[in-house]
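Question (not urgent): is this output format expected?
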Amino acid sequence: MTEAPDATDEGAPATGTPVRPIIVPPSVQAAAAWSWRLIVIAAAVVAGLWVLATFKTLTIPVAVALLFTVLLAPLVRLLHVGLRFPRALASGIAVLGLIGFVAALITLAGASIVDGISDLSTKAQEGFQQALDWLAGSPFHVEQAKLDEYLGDLVTAAEENMGTLVSGALSVTTTVGQVLAGTIIALFCAFFFLLDGRRIWTWVVGLLPRHVREDVHQAGRRGIVTLASYVRTQILVAFVDAVGIGVGAAVLGLPLAFPLATLVFVGSFIPFVGAIATGAIAVAVALVVKGWVYALIMLGIVLLVQQIEGNVLQPFLMGHAVSLHPVAVLLVVTGGAMLAGIVGALFAVPVVAVLNTVIQYFHGKDKFPDLGIGDHLIFRSPRRTPRAESVDAAPRTVVVAGPTPETAAHVDALEEHAWRSAGEPDTGSRE
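Got this back:
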């Protein structure tokens, strides 16, 4: 604080009030600058999530189609390049093969459930009665009349909430319809991603300003490699989990061993949480059918499989392609589940892994330097016609950024080699 100069001083205003200069420390200025930028970023993220949630009937199938695409790309490449199948035929065979595999898996699991559900139901009833007898005896000494009263209350509550149960069944029917529609959309999109993936990607990148197209393309290539590594590794890990727990259940003589293995395979696509939850179901089946000794053995098998997955398979197979710390994976899966339930838990890790690779590339750290930057997209701009109000003006032309007819075959050969070496799906049709 400085006092105002006296009125007698030459050139000084005679205000008589102290002058208090406004001084903001640099730390506060930096914090304010970061704060409003973070607020804008958070608002953009929230708006994006709202759009995705609003159009989830479309966004989720497209995301699933991308997973199918990176999974089936090696098969399409083998049929198209190795066996000389037409691109459309190779893509159709891959999609139909995926449908046939899933249908066979569901059929086998359903047949096993039909065969073993009666035995499991009988064992469950016996186990429930044994639990009631145990409660009536030591150490709780619960009277049988009290147990009958509790059971009667449960039956009454179920009857009173029959309307809620019916509405829940109707909502399940609606969900089943949405799942069927989403499955059709996902398969349709997967077919055309396999067939015309590069043309679609070229169109998407072409919407961006020219000076960022090359960086976006190179970052996208590395994101696809990360996604492919994650999907293929997760399938192998899920297969190992399913075989380990399924064989353990079969050795212990548990019913529904194959359906349990199928459930573990599907659940293992949610890292950590899925395999633990499905393994707990196997332990519960062992407890109901065989007793607590077999349940403890089954629990040991589940924990052993989880240790092999977490300490051997995940670090060895994932490598640096999906370089996320286990703590980050757990937090990401939990956050995804909180935001979007099972779907969020399923897509949280691959989305974060791809974003991690892309953002690091934009910041100058290339996780896949072997890919190089020799692969380039080719854009062609149409010739523009003169506007109606400027008839006398000479028509403007746009330079075409593409190969000449003499070099087209050479460019196609280079692109084919680049995409094959990158491990990405080659669509065979380019702009």
